[in-house]
Amino acid sequence: MTRAAVLAGVGGYVPPRVVTNEELSRRLDTSDAWIRTRTGIAARHVVDPGTSTGDLAVEAGGRALKNAGADGADLVIVATTTPDRPCPATAPTVAARLGLTDVPAYDVAAVCSGFVYALQAGAAAVTSGFAERALVVGAESFSTILDPTDRTTSVIFGDGAGAVLLRAGERTEPGAVLDVHLGSDGSMADLITVRGGGAEERSRGGTPRPEDRYFRMDGKSVFFAAVRRMAESSRTVLARTGWEVADVDRLVGHQANTRIIQAVAEQLGLPPERAVLNIERVGNTSAASIPLALADGLADGTLVAGDRVLLTAFGGGATWGSATLVWPDLPIG
């Protein structure tokens, strides 16, 4: 039999503080109707002072392990754009806090595509025999890098974490990661960026510009690039899997914007009701959005055993990626 990485458990976590559209409209030139119409978002969760991305990752990772009935993992990967520190990576600390002190652990930085990138790395490690169980986490405290005066970004993003545990199994099992497609185009680096804080800024010298500390995005250009690349990547991974578009029961897209997910479904020829959505209550949680959507889809019954699932995302870099699997029978945690 062909060895494969099999989804054994999922876990999600969002911080308790909820920020509604009404709250944002009291300090920004916006309204609940404006935000809902353009993004599909009604609320988002944000971290309180003193809570970090690592804290969120530990919560989600712990839940994934518990829900899988596993006592640990021998590989930890954390996908994030908002690490606890520039150095070191967040993953080793997350692993240690979960009681995993002798395992390899590293971060993946692919912004909103981060979870799909990390999923590929974790699946490859398990399939190759490097690891028996890989904990793959997407975690973000995006509120810490947003310009509070910028309504184009402040209304979109939220904080949270989601995680999956992959175990060694067989390709014929439900839950096996069947295929992953990834891509990038660095010529679009400025579409989604935080310009300050890195070697590029420091090597120039001089006084850093305060505005470069914040996340910036060219929303219109990102919309068209995201729809195009997510649809192309989806078609590629479906062909490699041997599925037709009509075979897909559930589309779990990066929860960037309801209109983007609907446009991707339309491009593929999928009925919009096959899309799994949780963006209305959590916003865009970047690398955490797909695993959070998986956890929510399991909890509310949207994802059921036997569903043929397509994951797809687009993020800064620019990066994009898609993956396929048949949803397994998982316990609801």
Automatic annotation (TrEMBL):
Q: Which GO terms describe its biological process?
A: fatty acid biosynthetic process; secondary metabolite biosynthetic process
Q: Recorded E.C. number(s)?
A: 2.3.1.180
Q: Which domain of life is it from?
A: Bacteria
Pathway(s) this gene product operates in, as recorded in its UniProt entry: Lipid metabolism; fatty acid biosynthesis
Q: Which UniProt keywords are present, listed alphabetically?
A: Acyltransferase, Cytoplasm, Fatty acid biosynthesis, Fatty acid metabolism, Lipid biosynthesis, Lipid metabolism, Multifunctional enzyme, Transferase
Report the active site residues: 112, 254, 284
User: Nuclease: is it a keyword of this entry?
Assistant: no
Please tell me whether the keyword Magnesium is annotated for this protein.
Answer: no
Localization recorded for this chain is: Cytoplasm
Q: Name one GO cellular component term.
A: cytoplasm
NCBIfam families given in the database record: fabH, PRK09352.1
Q: What is known of its domains?
A: The last Arg residue of the ACP-binding site is essential for the weak association between ACP/AcpP and FabH.
Q: What does the function comment of this entry state?
A: Catalyzes the condensation reaction of fatty acid synthesis by the addition to an acyl acceptor of two carbons from malonyl-ACP. Catalyzes the first condensation reaction which initiates fatty acid synthesis and may therefore play a role in governing the total rate of fatty acid production. Possesses both acetoacetyl-ACP synthase and acetyl transacylase activities. Its substrate specificity determines the biosynthesis of branched-chain and/or straight-chain of fatty acids.
Which protein family is it in?
Belongs to the thiolase-like superfamily. FabH family.
The protein's name is Beta-ketoacyl-[acyl-carrier-protein] synthase III
User: What are the top taxonomic ranks of the organism?
Assistant: Bacteria, Bacillati, Actinomycetota, Actinomycetes, Kitasatosporales
